[in-house]
Write a structure and sequence with these properties.
Length: 317
């Protein structure tokens, strides 16, 4: 069941590596933080302007994947997975959780001038909507207001233990109920799968295989846009397509890191330096290179610095 778990490990480690510099949109500030620093991954001091958690912990993006991972450790029956996953989402992110305690501050975000990072994790819009919809007992519970990576992150450990497109789409829609969120998530998973299967050029193979596939039309168009400016600096490309959490920008930035990097470490460092929502991009980049290079491609010292990696490694070993 968990023979592909190193792929999720890659996403987890990459997210944790980027997390202390998550959501730094001010390029001058980011440059001042990392100037003359030999190691910018697992930055010791939190520099995220919105929330502060310990170095080694993961963002809310990867944490929804952790909830799925723990769910799969309890059951493999698909119907049970969906129901238990929903219960675990409420338990991990809902009332009584660390995320929920900060909700009052989270709601104030757009109304105040944000001066200092709040202590504790940041709950995402998709997760807020999901919890509300679970309570309302809706059939499809995912958020509809934003098109972000929560659905992909939730589906990553599921897809590589189940490998059913139809069932994976149900998982994505459980937390991110939009056409864009589903299609970009599936595009990521298919590219990662090609890497895992030993394809030498997964992104181009994905393009070739799906050039006439209407389902992936938007993803294909965006990959082509990235390829046209492949030789531009990574920071320039991420800024051009958008540093924020939303698709297609977060997808495009990650694709550029993938096609211009040779290994896990250089790709993740590049992702961190580009600023903005580096964690959403890192979850794709890290999973890709873990699939492409195998578990040996993930820096061992980085794995040791990643708190959730301990439970994942137990099942890999």
């Amino acid at each position: 069941m968990f023979d592909k778990l190193h792929i999720f490990l890659g996403a987890t480690v990459a997210d944790a590596a980027a997390r202390p510099l998550h959501w730094v949109y001010d390029k001058k500030k980011l440059n001042s933080y990392i100037k003359r620093k030999k190691n910018i991954a697992f930055f010791k001091q939190n520099r995220s302007p919105f929330y502060s958690i310990k170095t080694g912990e993961v963002s809310g993006y990867n944490d929804i994947g952790q909830v799925m991972f723990k769910t799969l450790a309890k059951t493999t029956n698909h119907n049970e997975v969906i129901q238990l996953f929903k219960k675990n989402i409420v338990k991990n992110f809902g009332p009584g959780s660390r995320y929920w305690k900060n909700l009052s501050l989270r709601k104030k975000y757009k109304k105040i001038k944000w001066k200092t990072a709040m202590k504790g994790p940041w709950i995402h819009q998709n997760i807020l909507e999901t919890i509300k919809n679970i309570r309302l007992k809706k059939t499809i519970t995912g958020g509809t207001k934003v098109n972000e990576s929560d659905g992909y992150c939730a589906s990553l450990p599921f897809y590589f233990s189940n490998n059913s497109d139809q069932k994976t789409k149900q998982i994505i829609r459980t937390v991110a109920n939009s056409k864009i969120s589903e299609q970009f998530a599936m595009a990521k998973l298919k590219i990662i799968e090609l890497a895992d299967n030993g394809d030498k050029d997964p992104v181009n193979t994905f393009l070739r295989k799906n050039i006439k596939n209407k389902y992936f039309k938007v993803a294909i168009e965006n990959i082509k846009k990235v390829k046209r400016i492949k030789l531009k600096p990574h920071n320039f490309v991420v800024k051009k397509f958008g540093k924020a959490c939303s698709y297609p920008g977060t997808f495009n930035g990650a694709i550029h890191a993938i096609i211009t990097s040779k290994n896990f470490k250089t790709a993740v460092i590049k992702t961190i330096k580009a600023g903005g929502c580096n964690c959403s991009r890192a979850n794709f980049v890290g999973a890709y290179f873990a699939a492409y290079k195998g578990i040996k491609g993930i820096p061992q010292d980085w794995i040791k610095k990643t708190n959730p990696a301990k439970s994942i490694m137990k099942l890999i070993a």
